[in-house]
Amino acid sequence: MTQFRTAAIMLFTLLTYAAASCRSTDKEGNPEPPRVTTSELDAKDRPKQKPVTSVPPPPTYPDAVKSPGCGKPTVGRGVEDLKLTVATQARAYLRVAPAQVTPGKPLALVFWWYGAASSVEKTRATPDFNHAPNLEALTANDAVWIHPRHIQGTNLTWERRDNGRDVQFFDQLYQQAIQDFCVDLRKVYTIGVSNGGTFANYLTSIRGDKIKGAVAVAIPAVGAAWRKVNVPSMLIQDDRDNFRSAQQTLAKMTQDSGCPLATNQQLTAQEPATCYLVPNCPKTTAVAFCPWKVKTGANPHDWPRFTGADQQIWRFLTTGSVN
Fold it and tell me: Over the stretch 231-247, which tens digit does the pLDDT of each residue have?
C-alpha cells in the first residue's frame, strides 16, 4: 500500500513538471499567462460592432415624363421677378420655385393668369380681389409657379389670339421653365380667374399638347363660346356671379368631353360648398364643377374661400378626382 501511494505521488509530480515546462515564456524566461480566446471573453467586454446599413438608391420616378432640365443643377430657387423679350417686346413675370428640391425629382409646372384690373401682387395677397389661394404653400415642394404680368395699358388683361403676344409669352415661359427645372411634362397646369380664366381656357384649347389640366374661376359670361379642350378641366363659380352663364359653360364642357350633363346635375351652390365630378366622363377629359356661396357682404367674383377648396383643386389637377 505504501509503495502504491509513493508511485502515485511520483507520477503526479512528473505530470505537473511536464505541464509547467510546456508553457511559453517571455524573453526573460518567465512563464507567460495563459492565452484567452475571444470566445472566452465575457459578452459585455466584447467590442461593439456597428450594424451594417445599406444606403437606398435615389428615387427614379419611372412614370414621369422628364423635361430637359432634369439632370441639370437647379436654378432660381424661391421668389424671383424676371424678364424676357417676346417678339422685341420686354415682358415680366414672377417665378416661385421650391426652396428645397430633391435632386432628380420632377416638379409640376403651374401658370396663373389673374383677372382684368388685377396684378401679381393682388393675386398673391391675402385677402384681396383674386387673392392668392394658398396653393403655393400647399405645393411648396412639388411645383414651380409662373405668374405672368400683362402689358400695361392694354384694355383686357390677356389677348386671346392665335400666336398673339400672350400666347407667344406663354410659349417662351414654358420653354424657359422646362429647361431651367426638372419638370414632369404630364403635370403642366394652368389656372385663371375672371378674364384670366377665359384666357386659361383659350390657351388650353390651342396648347393642349403642353397643358395637362386647367382650372377656371369666376368666369365672365362665356356660355356656348367656351373653347373645347382635351384635358381635365374644373369650373368654379359663386351662385351670384354670372351663374347662369357658368351653367351654360358647364354644359358645353361636358358635351365636348363626351359626357352630356343631365338637367338635374346643373347644381346650384350648396352649403357646405364642395366640388363634384360630372359622372361618366373619360378620365382624360374629366370635368369638375365647384358651385359655392360667398358670405354675405363679400365679393362673389373671387377665388373660392370654402374649406378645402385648394386641396380639391390640387387633387383634381394631379389625380383627376376631388375627394
Answer: 999 999 988 898 888 98
Sequence-distant (≥ 6) Cβ neighbours of residue 304 within 8 angstroms = 133, 217, 236, 238, 273, 290, 292
SS3 111: strand
Rounded (5°) CA angle 249-255-261: 80
pLDDT at 107: 96
For residue 33, give Cα distances in angstroms to 14, 21, 24, 38, 259: 21, 13, 8, 16, 93
Burial tier of 215 (Cβ tally within 10 Å: 0-12, 13-18, 19+):
buried
State the Cα–Cα distance between residues 241 and 252, nearest whole angstrom: 18
Cell of 53: 446599413
pTM for this one?
Answer: 0.80
Going by the DSSP 8-state scheme, the letter that residue 66 receives in this structure is: B
Residue partners of 170: CB distance under 8 A and separation at least 6: 111, 148, 203, 207
CA nearest to 303, candidates 193, 171, 142? 193
Q: Give all domains of the chain, ordered by start, each with its CATH number.
A: 78-319 (3.40.50.1820)
Mean pLDDT, the chain, rounded, equals 83
Residue 178 to residues 90, 106, 276: CA-CA distances in angstroms? 21, 10, 32
Per DSSP, helices labelled H in the chain are 2-22, 120-123, 135-138, 165-180, 195-206, 243-256, 309-319
Phi, psi of 202 (to 5 degrees): -60, -45
284: left (phi over 0), alpha (psi -120 to 50) or beta: alpha
